[in-house]
Prior knowledge:
Exocyst complex component, cytoplasm, two-stranded parallel sheet
Amino acid sequence: xxxxTKKRGAAESGDASIGLGLAAFIANGEDLGPIVRHAFESGKxxxxxxxxxxxxxxxxxxxxxxxxxxxEEFILAVDELRAVLVDADELKGTLSGENLRLQEVASSLLLxxxxxxxxxxxxxxxxxxxxxxxxxVQVTGLCHICNKDxxxxxxxxxxxxxxxxxxxxxxxxxLKLLKKVVQKQIPVIKLYIEKKVCNEFxxxxxxxxxTTKDIGKVLxxxxxxxxxxxxxxxxxxxxxxxxxxxxxDEHAYALDVEYIGEEETLEFDLTPVYRAHYIHMCLGLGEKxxxxxxxxxxxxxxxxxxxxxxQPFLESHQxxxxxxxxxxxxxxRILRTAxxxxxxxxxxxxxxxxISKVASILEDNFSRxxxxxxxxxxxxxxxxxxxxxxxxxxxxTPLLEVLDKNRxxxxxxxxxxxxxxxxxxxxxxxxxxxxxxxxxxxxxxxSAFQLxxxxxxxxxxYVAPFSSxxxxxxxxxxxxxxxxxxxxxxxxxxxVYDVVKRYLDKVLIEVLNDGLLNLIHGSCLDVAQAVQIxxxxxxxxxxxxxxxxxxxxxxxxxxxLLDKPHSGLTARAVLKASQNAAYNGLIxxxxxxxxxxxxxxxxxxxxxxxxxxxxxxxxxxxLIYLHTVVSTAQNVLPREALYKIxxxxxxxxxxxxxxxFLSDRVKRFNANxxxxxxxxLQKLEEFADDKFHSTGLSELRKEMSFKDCLxxxxxxxxxxxxxxxxxxxxxxxxxxxxxxxxxxxxSIICDKFRDAPESLFGSLSSRSTGQSARKKSLDVLKxxxxxxx
Length: 789
């Protein structure tokens, strides 16, 4: 079969199918429109027409067969058909016209129908595309917002966007590529956010470590201000109490508005911590971050606990303690505000570790300190640290225990410093009465320590009864009390006053009193200096009550409690004993100087041929010296002390003259020599009476006056010059006139006594009857004394 034949056969086969379809449609009475449209669309109009012709031929044959059978009927039908044909032709013409018009109209409609169908298809596609695009736009919009939030470091908002994408859109994204990209980027973004907040947190760790010291210093400064405010309030309370004791003071109850106000709020940035914690919680990594935070802070704490070895602790302790305070105040804030980032057990563990380390460091450095002010400086900052941390609920017992352990060491160092200072004070003092030239000096050196109670400011220049070492010593004791109270003013000591009182006794006894005793016994002093030292001790002994009151005032103890029995200082009795030792030393010094003058007594002419008209030189020297002693002591010493010293001096003079009479240096003496001694005694007795009354000592109503101290040598002189010396053996007369004389001494002295002066021509000189009678009486006395012995 040729190609042409095959082509023709295929065409005939196609035409046959159209013909069969057309026949079937006509047979079934169906609409021929679809098949006609199909023929036109497929370009088989000729086949359609051929099929219609074949169908017409076929129908014509059937019509002929039918006509043969029904001829008449057919003829009639033919006629009818002819009639119908006419109508059909008319109808055909009408249909052709209508068809033409319809085709004209339908062609445009068909184009529009095609367009409409196409639009329907496009609309559906567009709807699907819009739905897809809507989802994609929402997803990309969320991604854009997420990127923007990340760029602006709004990580919480970015995570919310990611959560929304994952929950509502990720499974519904129609574009696989977009879905794949989003699925891939979500964990990357989360990891980026985690790293970002971790970097911010790490930067915060660096920032907060650099800031911790400043935070701690601010807190400790606040604690210092609070302490100053409390001290001021206590001071005002003490002043009010004192005013209420002596009378009402309208200012004692005034409200001090200056110090009323809210406490300064401490601000430091914890935002990176809060954000990092919250972001990690949103990422489901809360526990991981909590562990990370705790470990990093523990490492930082360990670094804070390392003090620089190249820097003295005195210089670095404030920095070190401020870091500790700042660190744990930050942790307290984190514990209270960071929503479970820290637990109380973790903070307590860190605090216990830190406080034990701090206590160990303090103990070690305290043991190496050799200056009280250094130890006090560190202690002061430690107490401020303790007050700050207690305010935030931390236990500070280990710190207080360290301070308790070093209390005695501090006071020993303080006592050592006081010893050096008191030695310097005593060394630079000239021990002359202090001349005060201005009211300001009087206020600083006298009124401040209540050294005098005259109640009014004297005229200037004013000569004080003490030397410059007294106000300096009082100032030193005041400083010691204040330093002691400063050290002991922390909470573990309940009764600060009792402890301060004990140490006050110690400084007064071991420092001040020992220094005075060393001064008394170990220095080369003249009488004026010794008098001044004795006067100084008397004033210092009286100042003990003032020292005690100053300590009680600083400790907040009411003054009424100081009036109770046994509430005084032991040091007062010790200073009283030292005062007596000073008096004894002064007496010894004065007597020693008197002995120097009394040595001149042995060089006088004991066998003078004539009665002297004036006192011996030694007595003039003694009187000048006694005048100096009395005038010096009168302005400085208490009257009791003055009486004791001067009485002892007169007694010593009496004993010295008696000793000379008894000594081997005087082999013999005569009445002229005794008469000279009598003149000396008269001058001495006149001086004694004058001083006894002029110094006001007569007002003391003492049983013995200064003159009475010379009674032994006076009675001896009277006996030797008596016309009837033998009356000494008369008990009545002896008791009345010679009660102070001893038989043995009188016997020895009488053996040396020669009534008349011995000279080359003494035996040839005339003697009066009186002298002879006195000599006989003296001889009788000598014999009776020998018989008595």
